[in-house]
Amino acid sequence: MPPGTPWAALEIAPFADHPVHLTLDDARGLFDRLPLRIIADNGNIADAKRAARLRPPRHMGDRLKRLFFKNAIYELVAQRE
Most confidently modeled of 11-20, 22-31, 54-63? Predict the structure, then answer.
């Protein structure tokens, strides 16, 4: 992005000791009461599930990841009101 663009990329990385489990609606709800005008949002749950299915399982835990995916991304672009 060019300098001066009013946009910031913030990453919420997974924590080994502090996992957070959110549905896509729950993630969207985190922004409901903030003074923001949502311009666009996107979640890649289908991509995360597909990636888990394509990886060869190394152990039984990997088989569970096909049902309970992890590391999906939720992106939101908003303007402060």
Answer: 22-31
54 — pLDDT class (breaks 50, 70, 90):
confident
Q: Please report the DSSP string for the chain in residue order.
A: --TT-S---------SSS-----HHHHHHTTTTSSEEEEEEEE-HHHHHHHHHHSPPSSHHHHHHTTS-----EEEEEEE-
Phi, psi of 38 (to 5 degrees): -75, 125
Cut 0.85: pTM above it: no
